[in-house]
Amino acid sequence: MTAPTLRDYQREVIARVEAEIAAGKRRILVVVPTGSGKTIVVAAMIVGAAKAGRRVLVVAHRSEIITQTHAKLYAAGVDAGIIKAGFPP
Prior knowledge:
This protein has 3 helices and no strands. By secondary structure, it is mostly helical. The chain has one domain (about 10-75).
């Protein structure tokens, strides 16, 4: 698996999330502006979780978000599936 190339501010977001997790927080909300690469950040975090043998569930309310996230994960080498009405198994 190859993690996406991240910008400095994206690495900072991941570091802050990891620090919160290390501090025992379980409900973490990340808010970043439109176009800042949220999908890339999430994909990088999922690659790290997959390498550590953890499972990840991504829940989204829009088909575009689901397919975009799946494409980024596929590009990063993560074997991800989609469970959604109207999508093939």
